[in-house]
Amino acid sequence: MSHPLNATNPLELDSAENLAAPKPYTWKDFVYITKPGILFSNLMTVFGGFWLASRWEIDGLLLLWILLGSTLVMASGCVLNNYLDREMDTKMSRTKKRALPSGRLQAQTVFAYGVVLGLVGLVMLYTLVNPLTAVLGLIGLLVYVVVYTAWLKRTSVWCTTVGAISGAMPPVMGYVAVTGKFDMNALLLFGILFLWQPPHFWALGIRRKEEYRAAGFPMLPVVRGTHATRISMIRYAAPLIPVSLMPYLYGSVGVVYLVAAAALGIGWLVIIVKGFKETDENLWAKKVFVYSINYLMVLFIVMVLDTTGGFLSNLF
Question: Of 18, 240, 264, 272, which has fewest CB within 10 angstroms of its CB?
Answer without folding.
Answer: 18
